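Two entries, shown back to back:
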Amino acid sequence: MRKGVIPASVADTIVNLAFGDLDIDRIAQISHEKQHSLLGLIQEMQRIAGPKAGEYVHFGATTQDIVDTGLVLQVADHYKRYEALLATLRKQLATLTKTYAQTPYMARSHNVHAVPITFGFVLARYLDEIQRHVDRLTQMKADTLTGVFAGAVGSHSALGMAGIAVEESLMAELHLQTETVAWHNAPDRLVAYTGELAMLGATLAKIGRQFYNEASTEN
């Protein structure tokens, strides 16, 4: 509407759709019959919008745009949660590192006593490792939180000369980065993100295992 691609009145009708009126059973039936993840929702929205406005539901988009960008929006929400949790963990580890900076601790090598260190030193290593995870997540954030609205083959052809402008406007409204070129079937951003989460999970599991083992009675 803002870029003059579809009539303003039609856009208003689509924006103001009563999503509470969606027939979920019909959506499920169509999706099952057509074996298409989004077609049921599109057709149901078209039904509610009516013939005139319904023609513009999903106009200029492709299913990959909607699914990928929707997934990125979920990742953006997860980012906020991880950032908050890691900030809390980092703060607690920093406090404990100072508290136990001089507390004697028997280090182990091959699970037997090695040389004395301090418990604060153990915690400092974990704090440093967590900080590296925070740094990597921060560095990849902009790249990960990139949406896409480029049409069926990624060329913006359905929207003509306004295609790129429409995409940039949409991504700005969604608080996502705009891609350089359509990333349909190129999930490296999300793979890198999930890979970092896997490494973070391994670090947290290691910390948990050490604390569990240290709570056991000496042989």
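entry 2 starts here
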Amino acid sequence: MEAKAYDLYIGGKWIKTGSYIPVLHKYTGECISQIARAERHHVQTAVEAAWETFRNDRLTPFQRYKILLKASELMEARRDEMELSLIREVGKTRKDAMNELDRTINTLRLSAEEAKKIHGEMIPLQSTEGSENRLGFTIRVPKGVIGAITPFNYPLLLSTHKIAPALAAGNTLVVKPATVTPLATFLLVEVLEEAGLPKGYVNIVTGAGSEVGEWLLDEERIAMYTFTGSGEVGRHIKARSGMRPVALELGNNSPNIVHYDADVELAARQTAARSFHNAGQACIAVQRIYVHEDVFPAFSEQYIAHVKQLKVGDPEDPATDVGPMISEKEAKRTEEWVREAISEGATALLPIRREGALFYPAVLVNTKPDMKVVCREVFAPVVTIIPYSDLEDAFAQANDSEYGLQAGIFTCDLNVAMKAARTLEYGGVVINDVSTYRNDVMPYGGVKNSGLGKEGPRYAVEEMTDERMVVINL
């Protein structure tokens, strides 16, 4: 496989740098690409290019709509290429890559529609004495240059969730993709420009987040930052951004509750299917499963039966369900956490097995709340099953977390479902499906240390525009 080199992409031009970083095939370890390592002056140039483009070459809403819609069509036409790229640079299985492509195409379409819907509202100034001759209304205007920092686990979809709404809203961008999975962002921008996006609207700078990210935060001309990643980095961005707004989608530790009246077969099948997709490397992946003691034996048996059917191995094999983690280092860290839990009294229902970056699904019982696999975000194919006898206690355990992105509950009682919706301290509560469910049209974002702001094209457009009040004295 020839290792293609990607330079920085600034103002529609490819910019070489003094050094390059290898991008590896996550299953074979083969070098599949080289990406440029940006220096501070490159970041400054990228922001300047984005700023000048924003000031001088604004697209109309209908033009933005046409470009984004055309991009979705081009993405569909290049499906095989896009999926194979995700399989190699991320380690996704073919099934997971196909799902990411489907969602990316849909997000482009949704963003296209939102470009045509940006509007303000009338304000009844005349209702106040002395303002009878004044007409008031609001308009929404683009913020300017958006600084976007994207994660490794869904590099195409989550780049699209930042770039497409930003463009729909009339902004320009400087994007810093994850160093280990940057190729998807280059392919996305290639598709957008093929669809008619003028050069300079999206600029790509690559390199270590600790360097490039800091230089982006130094740039006062960036009007807003949007970031998906760790809580530690998210807090740092918020502290450094000053008065500029941020949208932060951070970590999570998703609880899923299986009540005694649940459809146990459905719960076992759904949780097993969505516990280990993308090798568990998803913010809303199933991690903690709280199961009522009355159905605990039946659920555990059925859950394990489903998990045993999952095939682990080469992500390019269409039959594979669980591929490699992002690196052998992360797989080793996962194994350490699991073995530490076992040494402290937890029981593994499946053999603990690791082969390089492949970590086979691990299911633990008899865990304690302070174990890392329970109280922290494991971000790996690891699940704990925890019995409960009282629903209030299950809610309390589910809420006993610094995170609050999404949770799930299985129950046939509408009152229980609505109580969960009101009680669980999460940005999203999913009834009779797993916490992993995300439809790209919905508002997606968490509470507590899971972040600030919402994604989903409509909601991202609101985040990436300013409401401006207009008063006319007639």
